[in-house]
Amino acid sequence: MRKRERAVSEAAVAAGCEAFLTGTLAEYWEGQGMPVPVWAWTNLLAHGSADLIVERVTRPQRSRRVVRRWRIARSYMAKVLLEVADGPRRLRALQSEILVPLELEMATLPAVREWTPGQWVKAVDWAIRNQPTRADY
Hints:
This protein has about 140 residues and is an all-alpha fold. It has one domain (about 5-135). The chain contains seven helices and no strands. The protein starts with a helix and ends in a 7-residue tail after the last helix.
């Protein structure tokens, strides 16, 4: 691979990693024209700060019809998450103990690839509302 091509490839990998770690992976892939897998809609909830979560759900971007349904579902779950979390300590606990493992599990289960936004909402909602974290004790 030539030096310039390698630099472009490395920059793309770095941008993808940054998007994953900050919770903006769905937007990043959509912006690149790539399909957004079901598990990636969990990324904002699992890694985003409270401010970023609020920003992303209160200022929706124009998107394709299929993506719009996912954004609506994610907005609903973001509101549930922030309501249940009721503060930064509990949000971090929900993210690290519930949502990050859920995100990774969803990425590995073939059946999840076919989920509708409604099925995703049910799974995420149940996990957020029914799984205890260390912050609960």
